[in-house]
């Protein structure tokens, strides 16, 4: 009798654990003809989020009932009739291309990197991005790429992927192994931009830690992620903390770990790259790896973003936001 009860309990436990560990994946479809979401920024209270798409718009997702609404753009002469619905391949100067973005929660300021127009900010009313910086140390940004806000101070860390190649010359920058990218800091108090680190090989992702002691920066071309210490003499000391190929954006979790969107070499073919998200802690120890091949095929993700226990996934190669739960 007793053994039977225990057996039943064990069975029940196994049943429940499979239920609990079940993976679910759903899609939040972008509006008709919209595609290429590159980055995500969440509002804490509402869970609404912002994303930048291929036709130059910054959209805001306002929940399942309202869906996406137009929120902003960085191209001063952008025309909706000319630009809305344009395809990733036609990414243009006229329409703009918002890539990285991050929200400063206390002030509701959305900091944005537009690949053509540089680093800027939007208030809660949206509209045209107020460009704050287009060059540093005499070198214009060719591909302002990703943004991270240190919430307590409002300081913003951002990257310029290359001082030579713009987003339309991305393939060339890969073939020549460009390493002219930079990590920059926007000081919220003085409004000054300073170069913190140079000679990065396509720094496409950045995330600052809660105490502003270090930033993680991914190098897409060099296939590595660095931890750059924000103290000591410049150039700052840095350590390689992850070597997944083709890393993209990096996003901090509320517990102080980081999700990196990256590739993983397929064991079977030994060459194909599979889209993955990898969670590491501040020391670079891998905590979890999530394989996204089932839903993305060989299309790499640009961002894996933990919000409210779910992973939200952006990829410039698709027309939806993935929501992964486990
Ligand atoms: C926007 O239009 C104005 C007026 O035609 C022009 O001077 C300016 O160069 C244009 N800017 C861009 C980025 O196309
Ligand atoms: C949207 O896509 C449809 C179908 O691909 C196409 O017929 C239509 O012209 C597109 N609209 C815009 C504004 O690009
Ligand atoms: C960066 O690269 C330039 C050009 O190759 C070189 O002159 C410079 O010393 C490098 N800087 C650092 C900090 O490595
Ligand atoms: C980075 O990884 C990709 C994909 O595995 C590979 O094709 C490329 O040669 C690597 N780049 C470098 C600089 O090692």
Automatic annotation (TrEMBL):
Alphabetical UniProt keywords: Glycoprotein, Signal, Vacuole
Entry superkingdom: Eukaryota
Positions of the Strictosidine synthase conserved region domain: 145-232
Signal peptide: 1-22
Cellular location(s): Vacuole
GO cellular component terms attached to this protein's record: endomembrane system; vacuole
Coiled-coil regions listed: none
Gene3D superfamilies: TolB, C-terminal domain
Alphabetized Pfam families for the sequence: Str_synth (PF03088)
Location, primary (coarse class): other
UniProt-listed InterPro entries: 6-blade_b-propeller_TolB-like (IPR011042), Strictosidine_synth_cons-reg (IPR018119)
GO MF annotations, alphabetized: hydrolase activity
Family according to the record: Belongs to the strictosidine synthase family.
Classification via PANTHER family: PROTEIN STRICTOSIDINE SYNTHASE-LIKE 9-LIKE, STRICTOSIDINE SYNTHASE-RELATED
Protein's name according to its UniProt entry: Strictosidine synthase 2
Organism of derivation: Hibiscus trionum
């Amino acid at each position: 009798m007793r053994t039977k009860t225990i057996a039943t309990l064990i069975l029940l436990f196994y049943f429940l654990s499979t239920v609990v560990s079940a993976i679910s994946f759903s899609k939040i479809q972008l509006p008709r003809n919209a595609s290429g979401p590159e980055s995500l920024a969440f509002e804490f209270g509402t869970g609404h989020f912002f994303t930048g798409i291929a036709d130059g718009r910054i959209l805001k997702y306002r929940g399942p009932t309202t869906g996406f609404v137009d929120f902003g753009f960085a191209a001063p002469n952008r025309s909706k009739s000319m630009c809305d619905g344009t395809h990733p391949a036609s990414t243009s100067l006229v329409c703009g291309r918002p890539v990285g973005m991050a929200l400063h929660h206390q002030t509701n300021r959305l900091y944005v990197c537009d690949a053509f127009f540089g680093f800027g900010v939007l208030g809660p009313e949206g509209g045209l991005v107020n460009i704050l910086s287009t060059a540093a140390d005499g070198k214009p940004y060719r591909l302002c790429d990703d943004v991270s806000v240190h919430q307590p101070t409002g300081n913003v860390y951002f990257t310029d992927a290359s001082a030579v190649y713009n987003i339309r010359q991305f393939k060339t920058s890969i073939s020549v192994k460009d390493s002219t990218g930079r990590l920059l800091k926007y000081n919220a108090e003085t409004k000054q931009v300073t170069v913190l680190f140079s000679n990065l090989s396509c720094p496409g992702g950045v995330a600052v830690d809660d105490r502003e002691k270090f930033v993680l920066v991914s190098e897409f071309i060099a296939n590595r992620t660095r931890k750059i210490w924000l103290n000591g003499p410049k150039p700052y000391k840095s350590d390689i903390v992850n070597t997944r190929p083709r890393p993209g954006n990096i996003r901090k979790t509320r517990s102080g770990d980081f999700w990196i969107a990256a590739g993983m070499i397929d064991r079977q073919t030994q060459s194909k790259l599979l889209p993955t998200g990898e969670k590491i802690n501040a020391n670079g120890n891998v905590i979890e790896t999530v394989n996204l091949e089932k839903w993305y095929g060989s299309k790499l993700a640009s961002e894996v973003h933990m919000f409210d226990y779910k992973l939200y996934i952006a990829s410039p190669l698709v027309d939806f936001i993935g929501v992964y739960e486990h």
